Amino acid sequence: MVKFTRWLIALPLLASAHSVNTAVESRQNAFEAIESLVDEAEDLLDAREIKWQKLLAVSAQLNAQGDIVLNAFPKGSHQNSRAKPRIWEKWGHFEGMMSQMDQGFKLLHKGSTTQNTRLALQGLEAAADTCRSCHRSYRSFW
Ligand code: HEC
């Protein structure tokens, strides 16, 4: 019985440590993917003849990775990561920046669907504007 009780206490602790690590890993992977997908989208939009099908696929992936990031900052999950603890003190501001990035990806996707270069560029730029400013405030330097 003693053993059983101990398990009841230990299990939720294990579960939450595990889910925090999973969140850190999944957001880092998502950000890595976002970085190379943004580069890819820039190259595609730079080309004289835009490959719309390819751009559509890239922007769909950006939206998917953006969704992962949106849900991968559980409270206090700064350990073993470059996320600064102040994220959760300024959650409203941080969340606003995440959704600005997300809105940009949505606009890029809309521009890709309608083959509207200007709209697609506008979305991509709006998203790319958020990278540096968020990192400056909320990502540690090591
Ligand atoms: C809302 C804030 C925010 C925005 C917007 C943001 N990032 Fe980040 N980014 C972070 C934080 C915080 C980390 C550190 C995550 C960690 O270590 O757990 C990070 C980490 C990264 C990493 C490193 C992943 C790793 O393995 O350590 C890359 C690459 C990256 N971001 C690229 C981008 C790009 C490209 C954009 C813009 C399109 C962007 N980020 C937008 C907050 C942001």
Automatic annotation (TrEMBL):
NAD among keywords? no
Question: What SUPFAM superfamilies has UniProt attached to this entry?
Answer: Cytochromes
Q: Which domain of life is it from?
A: Bacteria
| InterPro entries named in the record | Cyt_c/b562, Cyt_c_II
GO BP: electron transport chain
Residue span of the signal peptide, if any?
A: 1-22
What are the GO MF terms of this UniProt record?
electron transfer activity; heme binding; iron ion binding
Q: What is this protein called?
A: Cytochrome C
**Organism listed in the record:** Pseudoalteromonas luteoviolacea NCIMB 1942
